[in-house]
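User: Continuing from earlier, I have the next pair ready.

Assistant: Great, send them over.

User: Here they are, in order.

Assistant: Folding the first of the pair now:
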Amino acid sequence: MAVEKLKKEDTFAMRKRLIGQSCKLFYSDDPVKILRARGQYLFDENGKKYLDCISNVHHVGHCHPNVTKAAAAQMELLNTNTRFLHDNMVLYADRLASTLPDKLCVFYFVNSGSEANDLALRLAQQYTQHRDVIVLDHAYHGHLMSLIDISPYKFRKLAGQKKWVHVAPLPDTYRGTYREDHPNPGQAYADKVKDLIDEVHGKGRKICAFFAESLPSVGGQIILPQGYSAKVAEYVHAAGGVFVADEVQTGFGRVGSHFWAFQLQGGFCPDIVTMGKPMGNGHPLACVATTAEIAGAFTANGVEYFNTFGGNPVSCAIGLAVLDVIEEEDLRGNATRVGAHLKELLANLQARHEIIGDVRGVGLFVGIDLVTDRDKRTPATKTAAWVVKRLKMDHQICVSTDGPWESVLKFKPPMCFSLEDAELVVQCIDRILTDMTANDLRLEKEDI
């Protein structure tokens, strides 16, 4: 049966009527209806092309032919319950193992980053026989109830902080307590975690895990200071806990120089790594990697872990194809080259526009922190929203904001993002900010 084609306004009306209104749209006042995509481009119902700087899920590019062919070929053969033996799961686990430190050698396949983080929490609690978790301020780890509980970004708007959850300062060297002029911000922020552990122990409680994104994204595209993770791991291990690295946003070569963002911290190795979004290039595929010791404790509890679709033949065929494309098209190299060029262009822009307070990032994980006052580093929230709106309306470029005040323009595009794409985006941002200055537009003072 042919699928009925709806007019955009009808689709919008039906969505408002049928879909829960907490499921938000990009550009909610004038959403974009996308009918097809390829590479780093989206196309609406009229064939208009948009440059996608948002979709870090579509890691190797929208609808990559090698990935879609692998999916279709496996679908024609078999897709079944994961209790049957099949080559794809073990071959894919073996490929993932080759990208990770040797001690991370046991894999659990699931369907989403939220599932992966929920399972990581279970693994940590079973292994340590403790419950309390330390997380970073402004963190977001997923939409399940267990993860809302350890996501300050969410729980502060809901029921509040649980007694077993403890929040450490975000190691932000731009806005945080210890900034870029501090001689060793990594040590200083890690010591804050140690203070928190001592406080928890003083209450007669015990630490299960330190849970953190390797590069905090919702927190504002934060780059952790060097030495931070290793020192935190030392303190957490001494307290009987484990270190969980959430790579759902940042894994699979997005940082360019390394396959995993936690590797930016030198020889540091977490005890559990969670991965998701980019794994399946838009197909629901996620994973938890851990040590044999932690996996053994999970098995020893006598309760079977079963996931009907996690690691099914089609998902793993897609995962293998994604790994092939990353390697064959040198997407890590591309992330390094394009990301460096983008940061250089943005630094030049920063020199001309006072509203750009900070440019930070690594590879194709980049943030522009907008401020109304460079000295006070006051977030320019409304201006950031205006830039996002103008980029979409005037230039067909899709960008979004993040950070505690939604004042950071974030870039996590598909990994095929090009040098020309980077130049176009910066030219358009320059034009928008120049027009604002020329028209003396002061959004933070309600000009609009």
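And the other member of the pair:
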Amino acid sequence: MEAEGFVRRRRMTAETTGNDPGVAGASAGAEVRWLGGRFWRVSESIMGSITPRVVGETELQTVDFKRSAQDAQAEDIEPDYEGLPQGASTSTHMLAGAVAGIMEHCVMFPIDCVKTRMQSLQPDPAARYRNVMDALRRIMATEGVWRPMRGLNATAVGAGPAHALYFACYEKLKKTLSDAIHPGANSHLANGTAGCVATLLHDAAMNPSEVVKQRMQMYNSPYRGVLDCVRAVWQTEGAAAFYRSYTTQLTMNIPFQALHFMTYEYLQEQLNPHRQYNPSSHMLSGALAGAIAAASTTPLDVCKTLLNTQESLALGGTQGKGAHGRISGLAHAFRTVYRLGGLPGFFKGVQARVIYQMPSTAISWSVYEFFKYGLTKHQLEKRRAQHMEV
């Protein structure tokens, strides 16, 4: 009971500060809650129109409203996170996932730029960096303050729909498979399988954005902007170039997401067994899950970067292999990486990748759980108000 009271007090305090813009500068947490409060007003009309209409989605299981008006007024406390409807709607998962994906990629984009540069197999002498901070400092000093953000708009456009599909598919499959494999309990096999299937949809939507983004992140990138890059790739290499790394992306992301989701759900069992809304546990679980999965799949990420960028100096040594001297597949990319860098070449940029993924997955899960909780509670309260009026 004391724990429940503490959680409720923290939640009520969070909402009070979240609705006051003046508190936004007091702390990062208050700022996020304030921005979230602003977002609810924008999303209310959207959710009101799309939530009840998604075909096949699980209907919100409303609480029993057939009670006296006096009892309804007496119950003027917030519902527990675990007491919210168990079947949050598909549209809720999609909207929360889209916001989480955009924030994750936008906030961590400069580190992603450094990771791409550090995975270069034959970097220009001016683009050889000692570590992440050295890279950021030199890029901004020699190429401009905004250079690490180049290609951000391409990523933002792809991340929204990609993560909407990703989280909606994961939540739906996780529940379905868990009920089949281990009814009434969490199943790590279900979590891993759901993550793998969700990755198929995510990468199909995200891969073209990845190609454009990484080409613009490279040192001395010849493209003036996103549209110029898209046009040039389409005209010189064809539409297939946007999916040249798709199989490699899947080969990397399927084990990455399996490890990611299984680790996250396991840590949630340990840190947050009652599955309440607990930002610190979501953040810590996401960060550790992302770090473990990122370090394990770095060799495949190096090959993916090579396929996406078609690095010119690496292409110079392909000796005519592949179409028109291009690196054309995962096996070819593996051989090229090994020939140019040996075994250490497969772990180029591992530091930047882990530094990128830890806060990235922490942000993604924290924002996703925050919006999922807020949207679901908002829908529940709206239905409760409607029933009380009736």
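Worth noting for the second one:
The two ends are 33 Å apart (CA to CA). Residues 1-36, 42-85, 318-323 have pLDDT under 50 and may be disordered.
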